[in-house]
Amino acid sequence: MPELLFLTQRIPYPPIKGEKIRPLQILRLLCERYVVHLGSLIDDPADWQHVPEIQKLCGETYFASLNPTVARATCLRGLLSGEPLSVLYFFNRGLSRWVEGVLARRHPEAAFVCSSAMAQYLLDRPNRPPRIVMDFADVDSDKWRQYAQRHRGPKRWIFRRESQLLLAFDRRIGRDFDASTFVSPAEASLFKKVAPEIADKTHFVNSGVDAAYFSPERGYETPYLGNHPVVVFIGTMNYWPNVDAASWFAAEMLPRLREAIPDLQFFIVGSHPNAQVRELASRPGVTVTGRVADVRPYLAHATAAVVPLRVAGGVQNKVLEAMAMAKPVVASSRALAGLVPEVAGCALAAEDPDGFVLAVHRVVEDGEAKSAALALRSRQAILRFYNWRRNLAAFLPLLGQRDEVPA
Fold this sequence. Notes:
Blueprint: E1 3-8, H1 18-30, E2 35-42, H2 51-55, E3 61-65, H3 68-74, H4 78-81, H5 85-89, H6 93-106, E4 110-114, E5 131-137, H7 140-149, H8 153-176, E6 179-182, H9 185-194, E7 202-204, E8 230-234, H10 240-260, E9 265-269, H11 275-280, E10 286-290, H12 296-300, E11 304-307, H13 317-324, E12 329-331, H14 333-336, H15 341-344, E13 348-349, H16 353-385, H17 388-392, H18 395-398
Parallel strand pairs: 1-2, 1-4, 2-3, 4-5, 5-6, 6-7, 8-9, 8-11, 9-10, 11-12, 12-13
Helix pairs in contact: 7-8, 10-16
């Protein structure tokens, strides 16, 4: 079999957040066609237990330890060197040496890179593979631009600087590599707008959802006490857009909703809740769970999933997974922007606190029976448009392979 180098910024397992879910599905597909040599970083000590799961898929592997505290401190040298901080954050000398060794020993015919920060390990290498696909997934420079708009003082300056430098870095990658891919037509169009010189090498490859795993037909014990209506927000809770969304809902929407629905509960489900999120648990009706073994029971027994993201890009897995579970979704337009219209139209869109209050109140008042038709339509749309294998087959011709994928 031909050989391929696969680089991703975090070990792609377990598939519990976007930066792991999509790379894992791509890896599984490519392992059917190539001997894949994988290099990644690990920033969560709990993830080391998952190394064997990835090793059994691959040829050679290298996992570099990343200490977030140290990485945050060392990347600040970029303020003097003029480099993007997020690129320096993910640099590891051991991983760089391993990549050099794999290129010398294995001579892979192709490389697949997840996240632009990992492109630094292949740029300017004279013996790099003859074909390289860069899966940006999202236009991260635009995320930093959105961050800058919502912060003041030194943070605004740092975020604006990061947006500008990262865009320049991403355009360099796009010029240097063979194909640049994004998770949705909207993200690809945005990149073409800000990097028009590489529009002809810019593509979108839709993601998917494991609809057999996220299935409403499985039986789940309820994690909730009592027979109260529950709205749930799911995400990694030290990620600022998620922190902002949950805090906004708890402060602006939940008190108004509880005036009309006194027993309504808001559950914030996800790992690494920061201090701001943990403080929300002191509010009436709010529960912060931290990491849970399985999010599906929280979705299955919730009245609705809320996704009030004010800063977002790409495709939100939390929306896809809730819809796959045939659960009503109330979401901002930013949270829905990356979805195909047939799927986005199955959610209840809301732009401000008034809109969220009205939509959630409607779902609660309608009850499960009235919501069932919309929920079923959501799942059917997911099955039609977000099949992993069918969508990811679009990567194969970009790598020079035929695009037929076994069912």
